[in-house]
Amino acid sequence: MAKADLMDFDKALELFEPVLGFEVHVELSTKTKMFSDAPNPANSENVTAGPNTQITPVDLGLPGSLPVVNRTAVEYSISLGLALGCSIAASSRFARKNYFYPDLAKDYQISQYDEPIAFEGSVEVELEDGTVFTVPIERAHMEEDAGKLTHVGGATGRIQGAEYSLVDYNRAGVPLVEIVTKPIFGAEHNAPAVGKAYVSTIRDIVRSLGISEARMERGNLRCDANVSLRPRARAGEPPAPLGTRTETKNVNSMRSVERAVRYEIQRQAAILAAGGSITQETRHWHEDTGTTSPGRPKSDADDYRYFPEPDLLPIEPDPKLIESLRAALPEAPAVRRRRLRESWGFTELEFQDVQNSGLLVEVEETVAAGAAPAQARKWWTGEIARLANAQNAEPAALITPLAVSEIVALVESGELTDRMARQVVEGVAAGRARPPRSSRRAASRSSRMTAR
Amino acid sequence: MVRHLASLALIGLDEQEVERLTGQLGAIVDAVATVSEVATPDVPATSHPIPLGTVTREDVPGATLTPEQALAGAPERDGDFFKVSSILGEEQ
């Protein structure tokens, strides 16, 4: 759709009320998969040796194979549910979601349907201007990831033109938690910002729990954004029923979530205002053009013919286990932010800058690796953010906090000038260079590691 | 109904087949429906006959298939990838 078919954002908000919903898939970083003891490629300690090397008969759904639930994946899921303020089901069970597509060899995905492990919670997210917005959570359920398809051939290389597909089942069976929000009302002009802040908060939560590597560029964290519009009610009238929604799939960076929500609001408003109607469908997000295009019509839940998974027993977690996981929860994001700001000695503005760039975890880890907070902030929100922006990548994808702390140390010790340090950062970000290490630092780091 | 199921299963049916399967599907549904004659409201839904819960395993890696073993049953292969004909659609 050309930009001309979009309504001005402010105008769209004047006429319509946006209602949002998000589905975030989190790949857990357990050592093995959800239902098999194959190494889990979402844990970067499991080096991938090539396609179809991290699979067992269970992941291929071979006859006679049976799934067995990974206890650690269940515990991670419970911890996540608790961190989202959810209740944990005394009994939950798995269900088969049937669909024919070669990304899963057995023609169904083991998921949870009517009895998810966690339900009814809420998450507080902080927007760039400091406002706190509460996102209601409907459920968080356990399921398995699907394999990866590469479409080959065809005139354009797009899915429709492909002549055949290559399948790698290494990712099939990776433990996933899908977090589903309730319809989100009242975000109004902040709707795109709420989307971004929500995904950012989920990322912070799973990283602080240590249950996922949460690297969006690797697909550890994936977001589907639901958007619908309804006409504004006139004074004294009841609110209009919910509008038809679209689900934009695979919006895989925080910035894209913001852009995709904004785009869908503008696109739908233009159609509705012209007297048209919205088709209920999934849509693809195109990072390069910042637009969405239609995918398949949304299947009804009926079409998946969910039924209880006969190969697995219900999950009935011991209440003592739940309480011990609750006791071990890290501090809530809002509490953590306050603590970090105080210990780093940042001004409100400086701290917001880090927070809004989604770099809180990076700065925290760089400080933990030995860098001064002010230096960690300077590098992440300055040079690295600039490079990331130029490459359209997440800053965390370019360089590790450890490497940043090394570079800071080299500048401090006078081994690098500020300008040379920038060149090193650029080299590391471009994959050309490894961060140099000062011998002093390497030694002090290893002694710290031992002390831990 | 038969046509809808056929489209979900990605199979093509001609008119004769639709007619034949409509009869067969009806018979199957009727047969299964006899369960409701004994399943009164005081009988809870059961998905498993044994009252067991939470059977789990330790998170410890085990043996994996080699690509040769994994691909032994593949309809076609391309290197160590499974090769399948393209399907209109998308990943779930």
Detailed description of the structure:
Chain A has about 450 residues and is α+β, with helices and mostly antiparallel strands. Chain A has 2 domains: about 5-325, no CATH class; about 330-445, no CATH class. Chain A is built from 14 helices and 15 strands. Chain A has helices at about 10-15, 55-60, 70-85, 190-210, 255-275, 320-325, 335-345, 350-355, 360-370, 375-390, 395-400, 400-410, 420-430, 440-450; strands at about 15-25, 70, 85-90, 95-100, 110, 120-125, 130-145, 150, 165-170, 175-180, 220-230, 245-250, 280-285, 290-295, 305-310. In chain A, strand 6 and strand 7 (about 130-145) form a beta hairpin. In chain A, helix 4 packs antiparallel against helix 5 (about 255-275), helix 9 (about 360-370) packs across helix 10 and helix 10 crosses helix 13 (about 420-430). The longest helix of chain A has 20 residues, at about 255-275. The radius of gyration of chain A is 23 Å and the shape is globular. Residues about 440-450 of chain A have low confidence and may be disordered. In chain B, about 40% of the residues lie in helices and about 10% in strands. Chain B has helices spanning about 1-10, 15-35, 35-40, 65-70; strands spanning about 55, 75-80, 80-85. In chain B, strands 2-3 form a two-stranded antiparallel sheet. In chain B, a hairpin with a 2-residue loop joins strand 2 (about 75-80) and strand 3. The radius of gyration of chain B is 22 Å and the shape is flat. Chains A and B meet through strand 2, helix 3, strand 8 and strand 9 of A and strand 1, helix 4 and strand 3 of B. Strand 2 (about 70) of chain A pairs parallel with strand 1 of chain B. Chain B: It catalyses: L-aspartyl-tRNA(Asn) + L-glutamine + ATP + H2O = L-asparaginyl-tRNA(Asn) + L-glutamate + ADP + phosphate + 2 H(+); L-glutamyl-tRNA(Gln) + L-glutamine + ATP + H2O = L-glutaminyl-tRNA(Gln) + L-glutamate + ADP + phosphate + H(+). Chain B: It is an enzyme of class 6 (ligase).
